[in-house]
Input
Amino acid sequence: MFGSLAEKLFGQSRYSRYALIISLFQAFIVTLLESLILAVHTRAVNEIPNIPNLMPVFAQGRSLTIYHVISIISQFFQLAICTDAIYHQNTIQLIALSIFIFCCFGFSCIQLYQSAGGIFDVLKQDHLPKDAIPFEIAVIVMMFGFSLCFAYLGYKLYQEFGWTIYKKIGADMEMRDRYKMYQIFIVLLKFNIFFIFGFSVQFLSLLVILNDKGEILQHIIFSLVTSIVVIVVGYWGVQSEKKILMYIFMIGCLVGEGYLIWRLVEVTQNDNNKYIGAKIWISFFLYVCLVLTLVTFIISIRCLRNFDKGLIYHFSRGTNITSQVNGGDGFIGNNRAYSLETVNRHTQRWSID
Output
């Protein structure tokens, strides 16, 4: 089992190996640097005098530590996305991964801006942020290099994995377009999970600081748990091509949009100190979640229209569907014939999930 997994991940091409190694190295080195920054930042916040005039500054400093945690989580997320993309030879996911890593580079630049100024200027204690600046500059340099590497490797792997789609789907352009919509939908679900989780981590940590137990429970039930259930239903629905599940998913998207808009209005129009130091980034994550949910809803409609047109048979890997035509090289379903091999019988068999 592990041998075949390693062979599929590392044995396909040198570019696959390079991508996995760089992704693993990025996750390790950036996590280490971000942990050092987090330690320095936490120590600095704890040194803020406990006096009433500086309590808003302390609350702001506590909220800013969450972004270092999110940055660390993002590194494990990109590693998981990279591994999954190579294992399933998903070209759309590789493109999304390259964009995501470039966004992480931008996020690291913003972190440096926050350290060089922000809450510590209020205290006039320059030694507090200065301790973390060398680590943050190192993160920026590393992330810039990683973004360039993945842009190049993503392009090379896009060329290689294009043959996989051709060998599995064939030359039918309509079928390939259906498969592309399916891939985009699955990738959007994965990034929805990350950004919803990122928003929830920020929001829940803020509620913990404020000791608002009632709103904590409300957010967990109506946002986090519901979002996960809706995403699972959407994934299950597109995999099995069950329309009722997709309808439930689309209703969930509309309800989620309403909840996110409500939260966004609350954050932007709140004039007290509830969101001090966190308003900009919570608003940013809310905007991203809104756009992602809307785009996912639109793509889900496209995927729903592609149901019962033959794409589901390409997801099957067992012999119960194949071996019915030409000794196992194709299948017939609902009077629609599809070829699983577009070349001769000795061509390597490719599979997708």
